[in-house]
Amino acid sequence: MALTPDEIDGLRELILAVYGPVTEELLRDLCRCITAAGQISSGDEYKLLLAKSLAGADDVIADTLRRQTDLTDDAVEQLMRWAAEKTAPLEENESLRNIAEAYVKVTRKEVANVLGQLAAADVDGRVYPIKDVYRRTMDYVFREVSSGTKTPEEAVRRATLRLWQRGIRTVDRSDGRTFSVEFMAQRAIMAKMGEMTTAINEKHHDDGGCDGWEISAHSASAPDHEPYQGRQYSDKEYKRLNSRLQRRIGTLSCKHIAWPIKLGVDSPQWTNEQLAEMARENAKGVTYEGRHYTQYEATQQQKALENSIRQCKDRIAAAQEEGKLGSGELRSSRILLRQLNAEYKRFSAAAGLRTAPERLRAAGLGRALKPDGTLEMPRPAGTLTGSGGKLDVEEARKSYSAYLDTLTDAPEKNMVWLRYFTEKNPTEYMEDGTLDAPFAYDPVEDRILYNPRHPQFSTTDFEMANTHELAHRTDVLNAQGYKNKAFVDAISDASKAVLDNAEGFQRVAQAVRSDLMKDILSALSSGRLDTGFGHKAEYWAKNSEAVPLEIFAELFTMETRNDSDLFFVKKLFPGLWKEYQKLF
């Protein structure tokens, strides 16, 4: 066994996603303080604001790092163990388990060092410790505004420009240079993972009496590795080759690995003809908008677009705070993000490349992210409550509006209704302590009910739950799928197919990852399938409209979040999907 090129790509993207929240949260807090400084003209008032902001920054940084460290510890352990198991079955060898355990510990220490050196860019573009940047940027804005040199909008925009351009940084202790937190975390984890898998393979080499190595091969290879991929080398030859390469094989700085072999016994995995064909296809590449790219160059261009998209998301985070002064930056940033996403899809399709969320799913790693593939962390409903456990409606709406900004791949028809019911015609929320669920939509009173005392309320993903309930509101007030004969008939046909092959669909229920898809299978089987999630059989039986209502809401939510398990709906129930698409 060995890590595949898709899995290595997926791991890189996943690590970037794990670290996305810490950078955005700190960036938002910095911008909040900068914006506040632009609204004050009195020196005494500014001194009080600065003192309060710096004290608050201590709490925000400490809290953010504490939560990020907890998340990272779990992520590091899962990723490292997963990579180790892909390299060799650990349960068969205690020494291999010990190698994996040792690397889990040292990798946790490495990423803790990454988080311990946080920095950011000042107005002049130079990088300072993050606490200093709070003071320096706030001082700049207050000075420029109070002196009349710049308007608040101009000063805040200038102060936040370098922040979103360069993001939250961290210092490389080896040479003092700074890099984004996400990149440094990715580099640290992938480097240690490469060392771990190499150590495991070296033990296999020694225990198995091997005398050589075979280097893996993949399409779109980098020029410095392409001449050597897919070939076998003696121990001496491999050591000499690797010592000459600037990017050594097995470090996971590329997608190549090497596994131990017995020369003359183990046949190469690739023939010379196959390797030559890979090289020809790489050189052939793709011509896009008049420019030729080799396959490798196309992958690098795709990564450059991904970096631009990440940077634009930082720009949106800054602009959301900056926008309180009336800036038009948020609108232009959202437009730019849509343009970048469209170009990313066009280029990836033309080059035949998987996009980032699809790489994760192809590698079997998608479950570690939200189904829509965004870089946001779920917002538990418990974090949106005030005193007495009541939902802070204003904060909930603000949080959900920010979440909607991340749904750049969601269908426009869905986004129209979600924004309308959040911003133009805000949905009413009402506490109901008798509710047998964390959230529910009341169609009679046209409002969302919530029960803060429900045992699952505090941990419920508010973004998913709210999307589901707003889908019900969209259905009742607009689509009315539960009254549409063609939609209801398509559900009946799908239900018959499920019940006629209950054993087969039970296997499907175990294979899907999405709770939304599990609930659809529960609805279609009237609760007879053991999905492990969803409404109970008595719920489906008590109301003839329950099944179409819930299926509409689940499909709407899956479509909005770009849930990968929509594949099962389209493949297994094409008639149902077709009629759903016609509803609105």
Concise account of the structure shown:
With 584 residues, this protein is an alpha+beta fold. 61% of the residues lie in helices and 7% in strands. α1 runs antiparallel to α2 and α1 packs parallel to α4.
For the biggest sheet, the summary is:
4 strands, antiparallel
How far is the first residue's CA from the last residue's CA?
48 Å
The fraction of residues assigned to DSSP E strands is: 5-15%
Strands ordered across the widest β-sheet: 2-1-3-4
Total helix count? 21
Query: What would the principal axes of the Cα set say about the shape?
Result: globular
Mean pLDDT: 85
Structural class call reads: alpha+beta
Q: Describe the oligomeric state of these chains in a short phrase.
A: single chain
* Helical coverage, percent range: 55-70%
Low-pLDDT residue intervals, each spanning 5 or more residues: 364-377
Radius of gyration: 27 Å
Provide an overview of this structure.
- This protein has 584 residues and is α+β, with helices and mostly antiparallel strands.
- Helices cover 61% and strands 7% of the residues.
- It is built from 21 helices and twelve strands.
- It has helices at 5-37, 43-87, 94-115, 130-146, 152-166, 181-207, 235-244, 272-284, 295-322, 329-351, 356-362, 393-405, 412-424, 462-479, 485-500, 502-511, 515-524, 537-542, 546-560, 566-572, 574-582; strands spanning 118-121, 127-129, 169-171, 178-180, 212-215, 232-234, 258-261, 286-288, 291-293, 428-431, 439-442, 447-450.
- Mean pLDDT is 85; it is low at 364-377.
- The strands form four sheets. The chain has a four-stranded antiparallel sheet. A three-stranded antiparallel sheet has the order 6-5-7. Strands 10-12-11 form a three-stranded mixed sheet, with helices on one face.
